[in-house]
TrEMBL record:
Residues 163-187 are annotated as: Disordered. InterPro entries: Ankyrin_rpt, Ankyrin_rpt-contain_sf. It comes from Neocallimastix californiae. Keywords: ANK repeat, Repeat. Pfam families: Ank_5 (PF13857). Residues 173-187 have a biased composition (Acidic residues). The keyword Magnesium does not apply. ANK repeats lie at residues 48-80. This is Ankyrin.
Length: 187
């Protein structure tokens, strides 16, 4: 094919250009990226089981994902961890397109038993969580463990409070709750 370095074509580079959202390159890689410049399957997987659709979805390349789906990509295909493309979704617009236009399964569970909404919650993709709640009525996640940064902030805040008390001549054992005395026990 003129203008294409065929030595660089491979399934993994197909994944890269899909993640970049370059539809023209995706087309060329699918046409000439296989062994001996043969066609590649649109659902070709890299060494981790990712497909071009996983890549386009995980990098929020809406038009590339749409093109792949319109040309035969499997919306519910899984990678080596059992994740569908919806498990990698970072935007509500992408999630909506996958579910409403291409029938992605919002209840699909990966090898860890997690649904796409669980992954979105863990990754703080709040708009995706809000969208997927419509399909996952029983979603009631456990509170998140505080991050190391959040814990450090609490510790530093308490240290500053202790320093201020010491500088003001206050005892560190003083509490803010002086109303804890039980007035009903006047024996």
């Amino acid at each position: 094919m003129p203008g294409v370095d065929l030595q660089d074509l491979s399934e993994s580079t197909l994944w890269i250009v899909a993640g970049e959202g370059k539809i023209d390159k995706i087309k060329r890689y699918l046409e000439y990226g296989g062994p001996n410049n043969s066609k590649l399957d649109i659902n070709s997987k890299d060494e981790f089981g990712y497909t071009p659709l996983h890549a386009a979805v995980s990098y929020s390349r809406l038009e590339a994902a749409r093109w792949l789906l319109e040309n035969g990509a499997d919306v519910n295909i899984t990678d080596d961890d059992g994740d569908t493309p919806l498990h990698s979704c970072e935007s509500a617009a992408m999630a909506k397109m996958l579910v409403e236009e291409f029938n992605a399964d919002p209840l699909a569970k990966n090898d860890e038993g997690k649904m796409p909404i669980d992954n979105a919650y863990e990754e703080d993709f709040e708009e995706v969580v809000e969208y997927l709640k419509e399909y996952c009525k029983d979603f009631n996640p456990a509170p998140k463990e505080p991050s190391n940064d959040e814990l450090l902030d609490v510790i530093l805040s308490e240290l500053e409070r202790a320093r201020d008390k010491i500088q003001n001549g206050e005892s560190l054992s003083d509490t803010d709750d002086d109303d804890d005395d039980d007035d009903d026990n006047d024996n």
